[in-house]
């Protein structure tokens, strides 16, 4: 279920989106920043240069973790996800700037997260080494029914308080972490690689991680758009074990 579905008084969604809305990011940004080290002002020739001839340099910088040349670029994403994803996202403090919609200054929309049929429901194993299995039809039905009931009740409580004149900032206490929020997140490639190293599982990762699927969905969408902008940097990230430089 990828589109909105109307219930009595709420909508549910299963999609989580990250849309690149603005950027100044290309592989040659890495090259000119690195070359000032040895060329000084002659590195100006590398601004907007053909990045293909810097492929080896980019790979060397990634491999040896010379990270700062990967910071001279910028990408702004508009992200639409449940609050529990933002709770995890905002732990990434370095190289990210955030602005999120306010629950104090606007009335929050009744849009909630509903895991779709592909979302594995059953957690097995121990902390840090969980694996997930699909779950039975019954477990999917229980999840759907219980979440929807809880969302409807929570939003009714929120509305009841607003209708009685209670401030939005007080009434929002009734709302669960499955409520959708939206934010802009601006980052550079180095910060994004650190985020991806922790929030995606990938065959080429040399350091394992076990992210929650929903933040991984955001990370995958961001990665796909970044890879289009900086294909050489992205390839070097993969071939060096997806460790941020
Ligand atoms: C699978 C997974 C499970 C997690 N589970 C939990 C959990 O149960 N509970 C919980 O609280 N968090 C949890 N987290 C969040 C985690 O602890 C980090 O807060 C989050 O991954 C951000 O990582 P970071 O601090 O490296 O990123 P950033 O905040 O972006 O920092 C980037 C890098 O800057 C450096 N740095 C930043 N701040 C400091 C500092 N103050 N001192 C020294 N160096 C600094 C570090 O090298 C750091 O790696 C989990 C994360 C993952 C990926």
Automatic annotation (TrEMBL):
<comment type="pathway">
    <text>Pyrimidine metabolism; dTTP biosynthesis.</text>
</comment>
<dbReference type="GO" id="GO:0032259">
    <property type="term" value="P:methylation"/>
</dbReference>
<feature type="binding site">
    <location>
        <position position="194"/>
    </location>
    <ligand>
        <name>FAD</name>
    </ligand>
</feature>
<dbReference type="GO" id="GO:0050797">
    <property type="term" value="F:thymidylate synthase (FAD) activity"/>
</dbReference>
<feature type="binding site">
    <location>
        <position position="100"/>
    </location>
    <ligand>
        <name>FAD</name>
    </ligand>
</feature>
<keyword id="KW-0489">Methyltransferase</keyword>
<dbReference type="GO" id="GO:0006231">
    <property type="term" value="P:dTMP biosynthetic process"/>
</dbReference>
<feature type="binding site" description="in other chain">
    <location>
        <begin position="100"/>
        <end position="104"/>
    </location>
    <ligand>
        <name>dUMP</name>
    </ligand>
</feature>
<feature type="binding site">
    <location>
        <begin position="188"/>
        <end position="190"/>
    </location>
    <ligand>
        <name>FAD</name>
    </ligand>
</feature>
<comment type="subunit">
    <text>Homotetramer.</text>
</comment>
<feature type="active site" description="Involved in ionization of N3 of dUMP, leading to its activation">
    <location>
        <position position="199"/>
    </location>
</feature>
<dbReference type="InterPro" id="IPR036098">
    <property type="entry name" value="Thymidylate_synthase_ThyX_sf"/>
</dbReference>
<feature type="binding site" description="in other chain">
    <location>
        <position position="172"/>
    </location>
    <ligand>
        <name>dUMP</name>
    </ligand>
</feature>
<keyword id="KW-0545">Nucleotide biosynthesis</keyword>
<comment type="similarity">
    <text>Belongs to the thymidylate synthase ThyX family.</text>
</comment>
<keyword id="KW-0285">Flavoprotein</keyword>
<keyword id="KW-0521">NADP</keyword>
<dbReference type="Pfam" id="PF02511">
    <property type="entry name" value="Thy1"/>
</dbReference>
<feature type="binding site">
    <location>
        <begin position="88"/>
        <end position="91"/>
    </location>
    <ligand>
        <name>dUMP</name>
    </ligand>
</feature>
<dbReference type="InterPro" id="IPR003669">
    <property type="entry name" value="Thymidylate_synthase_ThyX"/>
</dbReference>
<dbReference type="GO" id="GO:0004799">
    <property type="term" value="F:thymidylate synthase activity"/>
</dbReference>
<feature type="binding site">
    <location>
        <position position="68"/>
    </location>
    <ligand>
        <name>FAD</name>
    </ligand>
</feature>
<feature type="binding site">
    <location>
        <position position="199"/>
    </location>
    <ligand>
        <name>dUMP</name>
    </ligand>
</feature>
<protein>
    <recommendedName>
        <fullName>Flavin-dependent thymidylate synthase</fullName>
        <ecNumber>2.1.1.148</ecNumber>
    </recommendedName>
</protein>
<dbReference type="GO" id="GO:0050660">
    <property type="term" value="F:flavin adenine dinucleotide binding"/>
</dbReference>
<feature type="binding site">
    <location>
        <begin position="91"/>
        <end position="93"/>
    </location>
    <ligand>
        <name>FAD</name>
    </ligand>
</feature>
<keyword id="KW-0808">Transferase</keyword>
<comment type="function">
    <text>Catalyzes the reductive methylation of 2'-deoxyuridine-5'-monophosphate (dUMP) to 2'-deoxythymidine-5'-monophosphate (dTMP) while utilizing 5,10-methylenetetrahydrofolate (mTHF) as the methyl donor, and NADPH and FADH(2) as the reductant.</text>
</comment>
<dbReference type="GO" id="GO:0006235">
    <property type="term" value="P:dTTP biosynthetic process"/>
</dbReference>
<keyword id="KW-0274">FAD</keyword>
<dbReference type="GO" id="GO:0070402">
    <property type="term" value="F:NADPH binding"/>
</dbReference>
